[in-house]
């Protein structure tokens, strides 16, 4: 993933935690702890998303958002401890794409980051590829239909989403958190790692010749799963 995120947060501990979380998710992170550093980062890097604290040592995140919107439409998510309706409305009216109050749950935070990126980059979504071919498997996205060696294999909605995610990312290692956020975007915060394992097992039983010795969906110990296509 080549998505580059500018993180503007002056709290050292929170900054390190968010940066680590985003990097584990596969994002590139450019950090800034004050507005001047953020301005320089925007000039020197191609930024795809800005995570912006409201209260900063040398200024206000709301004012910086308005400044950014004069020149570019890079998506912005506000990070702030204030949950007052006035502040939320102000941030969104100034051009913010989302507003997350601290403290926040990790999976909900990542889900909302992915959601903003999907809204701004719809062409990159899995569903835009009509036909996916891998070995003996052929997946028709529009018809939600899977064939193996010419024989149709019925899939549940979840199995279809999971398979299309794997086939769209051949040879890429996908973490369980990444899979949860893509396959269950509306309920990511209530799911756990076992949910992924159960659904991977069910999918293997449908597409693998020997589910105990899979050739398509490989387990990468300690990291997640990789599509061997």
Automatic annotation (TrEMBL):
CDD domains, per database record: REC_OmpR, trans_reg_C
Domain Response regulatory, residue spans: 4-117
UniProt keyword Membrane, yes or no: no
All residue ranges annotated as the OmpR/PhoB-type domain in the record: 128-229
Binding region for DNA: 128-229
Keyword Transcription regulation: yes
Modified positions (4-aspartylphosphate) in chain numbering: 53
Single GO molecular function: phosphorelay response regulator activity
SUPFAM superfamilies, A to Z: C-terminal effector domain of the bipartite response regulators, CheY-like
Alphabetized InterPro entries for the sequence: CheY-like_superfamily, OmpR/PhoB-type_DNA-bd, Sig_transdc_resp-reg_C-effctor, Sig_transdc_resp-reg_receiver, WalR-like, WH-like_DNA-bd_sf
GO cellular component labels: cytosol; protein-DNA complex
Alphabetized Pfam families for the sequence: Response_reg, Trans_reg_C
Alphabetical UniProt keywords: DNA-binding, Phosphoprotein, Transcription, Transcription regulation, Two-component regulatory system
Example GO biological process: regulation of DNA-templated transcription
Protein name: Response regulator transcription factor
């Amino acid at each position: 993933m080549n998505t580059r995120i500018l993180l503007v947060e002056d709290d050292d501990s929170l900054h390190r935690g968010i940066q680590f979380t985003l990097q584990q998710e596969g994002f590139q992170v450019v950090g800034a702890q004050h507005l001047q550093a953020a301005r320089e980062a925007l000039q020197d890097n191609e930024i795809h998303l800005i995570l912006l604290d409201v209260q900063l040592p040398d200024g206000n995140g709301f004012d910086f958002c308005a400044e950014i919107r004069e020149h570019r439409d890079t998506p912005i998510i506000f990070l702030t401890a204030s949950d007052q309706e006035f502040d939320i409305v102000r941030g969104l009216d100034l051009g913010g794409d989302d507003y997350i109050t601290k403290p926040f749950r990790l999976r909900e935070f990542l889900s909302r980051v992915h959601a903003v990126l999907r809204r701004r980059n719809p062409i990159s979504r899995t569903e835009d590829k009509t036909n996916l071919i891998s070995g003996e498997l052929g997946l028709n996205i529009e018809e939600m239909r899977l064939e193996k060696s010419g024989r149709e294999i019925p899939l549940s909605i979840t199995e279809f989403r999971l398979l299309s995610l794997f086939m769209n990312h051949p040879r890429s290692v996908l973490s369980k958190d990444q899979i949860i956020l893509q396959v269950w975007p509306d309920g990511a915060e209530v799911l756990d790692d076992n949910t992924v394992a159960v659904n991977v097992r069910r999918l293997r039983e449908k597409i693998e010749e020997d589910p105990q010795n899979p050739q398509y969906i490989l387990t990468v110990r300690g990291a997640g799963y990789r599509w061997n296509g």
